[in-house]
Specification:
Order of helices and strands: HHHEEHHHHEEEEHHHHEH
Helix content: 40-55%
Number of helices: 12
Distance between the termini: 24 Å
Strand content: 15-25%
Largest sheet: 4 strands, antiparallel
Number of strands: 7
CATH class of the domain at 59-173 and 282-289: Alpha Beta
Length: about 300
C-alpha cells in the first residue's frame, strides 16, 4: 500500500465513481496500476463508469480547421485552464490547426512549419510562449481527414470560439449529395460523436486488444453468477453485443434534440441517403478531448497540504 498515494485514489475514484475504500483496495491489489484497478473494480461490480477512464488529466484546447473536403484537429496542452483562456494561447492554437490542415495531420511537419510566413517554426513559437506565459506548452497531437467526393464536417464542444474548445470532432461523409445538406448532416453526427464518444466506426475497426480486454471483464462477471458454462458463454456473447452497441458508432442510438431514443446512427445515415437522393457513407471520424490519456503527476495530498502550510 506504500506506493498508493491519496492522489492516485482520488483519480481512480473520479474515473470510476467507486467508493474511496474500494479504490484503495483496487490499487493495492494491482500494485498501483490504474488501468488494472479499473478492470478490478468493474469485475467486482463496483464501477459502471468505464468510459470515464479517458477523463481529462491536462488543460489546453483542441483546435479545428476545415476546408471543404478536408479537415484537421490539433491538441495543444498547457498546465492550467487559466492559460487555456489566454488570448495569445488561443491564437497560437487556432493558427496551429490551420497549419495542421496543410501538414496533413503530421505532427512533425506541423512543428517544422513557419508559424507565420517567414517567421519562426511552430515548435520555436511554442518555446517562446513558454518563456512568455511561464507554463509548459506542448503541441501534443494532430490528425487530418479528407474525402472525395463529399465533405468533412466539424463540431467543437465547450467552445471558446467556433474553432477552439475542449472537445473537437471531424466526420468525413462520402457522397455526391448536395454539400450544404451533407454538411448539416455531418454536423449532427459530429455532435453525436462528441456526446457518445464511440470507440470505432464498426466492430471490425475496434482494436483486438480492446475487444479481448472487454471480453475478459464480461467473462469474469458472467461466471460470478454461478451458472453452467454453456449459459455463461451465452451471457458473455450477449454482454459483448451490448458492448458493441454502446461503443461502435453505426450501432449507437443517435443523440439529437428530436431523437426518438431508438434510431441507430446507421439508420439515420440510411434515411439521409434516401432523402438526399445519393448514397451517404461515414468514411471516417475522429474525436479529440483535451488531456485524454495523459496521466497526472502522482502526489500525496497530506504532503501537499503540509508544504502549503510551511510544515
Amino acid at each position: 500500500m506504500s506506493n498508493v498515494t491519496a492522489t492516485m485514489v482520488k483519480d481512480l475514484r473520479d474515473k470510476t465513481g467507486a467508493g474511496m475504500m474500494d479504490c484503495k483496495a483496487a490499487l493495492a491489489e494491482t500494485q498501483g496500476d490504474v488501468e488494472a484497478a479499473i478492470d478490478w473494480l468493474r469485475k467486482k461490480g463496483l464501477s459502471k463508469a468505464a468510459k470515464k477512464a479517458g477523463r481529462v488529466a491536462a488543460e489546453g484546447l483542441i483546435g479545428v480547421a476545415v476546408n471543404g473536403d478536408a479537415g484537421a484537429l490539433v491538441e495543444v496542452n498547457a498546465e492550467t485552464d487559466f492559460v487555456a483562456r489566454n488570448d495569445t494561447f488561443k491564437e497560437f492554437v487556432k493558427r496551429a490547426a490551420e497549419l495542421a490542415l496543410e501538414a496533413g495531420g503530421d505532427v512533425d511537419k506541423l512543428l517544422a512549419q513557419p508559424h507565420t510566413p517567414g517567421g519562426a517554426s511552430v515548435r520555436d513559437t511554442a518555446t517562446e510562449l513558454v518563456a512568455k506565459i511561464g507554463e509548459n506548452i506542448s503541441v501534443r497531437r494532430t490528425i487530418a481527414l479528407s474525402v472525395s467526393p463529399g465533405v468533412v464536417a466539424t463540431y467543437v464542444h465547450n467552445a471558446s470560439s467556433p474553432e477552439l474548445g475542449k472537445i473537437g470532432v471531424l466526420v468525413a461523409l462520402k457522397s455526391t449529395a448536395d454539400k450544404t445538406k451533407l454538411a448539416a448532416l455531418g454536423k449532427q453526427l459530429a455532435m453525436h460523436i462528441a456526446a457518445a464518444a464511440p470507440l470505432a466506426l464498426t466492430p471490425e475497426h475496434l482494436s483486438p486488444d480492446v475487444i479481448a480486454r472487454e471480453r475478459a471483464i464480461q467473462a469474469d462477471l458472467a461466471r460470478q453468477s454461478g451458472k453452467p458454462e454453456n449459459v455463461v458463454e451465452k451471457m458473455i456473447e450477449g454482454r459483448m453485443r451490448k458492448f458493441f452497441e454502446d461503443s461502435v458508432l453505426l450501432s449507437q442510438i443517435f443523440h439529437s434534440a428530436d431523437s426518438d431514443g431508438k434510431t441507430t446512427v446507421s439508420a439515420v445515415v440510411e434515411k439521409a441517403s434516401k432523402d438526399l437522393g445519393s448514397p451517404v457513407i461515414i468514411d471516417a471520424f475522429v474525436r479529440f478531448a483535451v488531456g485524454e490519456g495523459i496521466e497526472k503527476i502522482d502526489g500525496d495530498f497530506a504532503d501537499e497540504v503540509n508544504k502549503m502550510a510551511g510544515r
